[in-house]
Hints:
Layout: E1 3-12, E2 22-30, E3 34-38, H1 45-52, E4 60-65, E5 68-69, H2 75-85, E6 86-89, H3 101-111, H4 116-129, H5 145-157, E7 163-167, H6 175-190, E8 195-198, H7 202-208, E9 211-216, E10 219-223
Parallel strand pairs: 3-8, 3-9, 6-7, 7-8
Antiparallel strand pairs: 1-2, 1-4, 4-5, 9-10
Amino acid sequence: MRQVIELEGVVKRYDSAAAPALGPLTLSVAQGEALAVTGPSGSGKSTLLNLVAGLDKPTEGAVTVAGRRIDRLSEHALARFRREHIGMAFQFFNLLDDLTVTDNIRLPAQLAGAGRRKAAARADELMEALGIQKHARAYPGRLSGGERQRVAVARALVNRPALLLADEPTGALDTASGHDVRTLLMDLHRAGQTIVLVTHDLTLAEACASRTIHLVDGRLALDSSAEAVR
């Protein structure tokens, strides 16, 4: 099975005199896998996500995503790679409040070079699939938290990315909205979307992920696909 993510001997240091924020870490994520990343605050979860997203570069090691060695790419090439291959959904949605739901969703497609008509058609397809079509002309500020997260996920998927990264996607939601987003992630996984989910919510990880890793002090402490790492 094709590997969407491959980390080889990855280490990230922010202070050369201190212990690494992450690593050394070797990790693979296969196509169609849903990986939950758990661990206490400061364990390296966000660092891992930033390295996979190409938002940061490792101090040591190699980061390969969708067949590309992204730690060797320039900032310009990284930005283009992210647009084409990685979708990201965040805890606080990061939607543009002065754009409608439709315009928020289709914006990444237009930035990637898709024509307006093609981008609009893809946005319509996703809104229908995610149950937010009735909000197409609404502005994000008028939606519930769960609805806004669905818009954020639609935006993340508009370019048909190889990889969806979700950073605490239910962290800012009430119980009902969190349940809706959990169901959405489960549906995406069943449809074959490769997902990396960073979360403190073990219920979310158990429901949505086919595999869970647990980080402690930047190191892999547990991988549910294997025995505990010692």
